[in-house]
Amino acid sequence: MITLEELIIEMMPFSQELKVFCKNNSDFRKALKIIYIDRFITLHAVGTSYSPNFPDDEVVGIYVYDFGIKDPKFKQDFIINKGGLKKEFVLYTGFSSVVNNKNIKHINEFLATYGKGGYYKNAHRPKFEEFSNELKEIALKAIKLANERKKNGFVKITPEHVEKIYKKLKALHNEV
Question: Contacts by 129-134 with C-beta closer than 8 Å and gap 24+?
Fold first, then answer.
């Protein structure tokens, strides 16, 4: 049976190789903000870019809305696809409690290396106004959902419900 964490990863617009990497590396998976649905809402959107400091490495930005803090805001963590080979991935996050191995590093290290020279300045805390129109629409839905969660709480998600959603997701993929 699939777990809620695995379902969230499966629903992300990640490469298949990154999804497998997440599944096989529990520390990496647990360092992703997107799995903490009681605090973050994923925008199910990623941005890819390349830093001139490491032009062979693909930079994958993951957008979330952090509604579990006093002043909710959008955040972006980064996954580096080393050499663009889809074999080794490094997550850069502000979750300092999970920075514990070669594949999970603090966001400040990302800014000091990939962002050296002013690249990715303020990218960890993107502003709504800087989003594309398409991302703004998604962001507004995330804000609405966060407000509903704050007001009404959460619906308990059972393992059976997770499995049902997963089967529907797989069926959709098979239709494409």
Answer: none
Other CB atoms within a 10 A radius of the CB of residue 92 amount to 26
Q: Hey, where are the domains in the chain?
A: 4-175
Helix axes 4-11 and 159-175, enclosed angle (nearest 10): 20
Strand-pairing partners, residue 93, are: 106
Specify the amino acid at residue 90.
V
| Helices first, then strands: H and E counts in the chain | 6, 5
Cα gap 142→67, rounded to integer Å? 9
Q: What is the model's pLDDT at position 77? A: 93
Contact criterion met (CB below 8 Å) for 67 and 149? yes
For 7-158, list the strands marked E by DSSP. 40-50, 58-66, 73-81, 89-93, 104-106
* pLDDT tens-digit readout, 27-80: 999 999 999 999 999 999 999 999 999 999 999 999 999 999 999 999 999 999
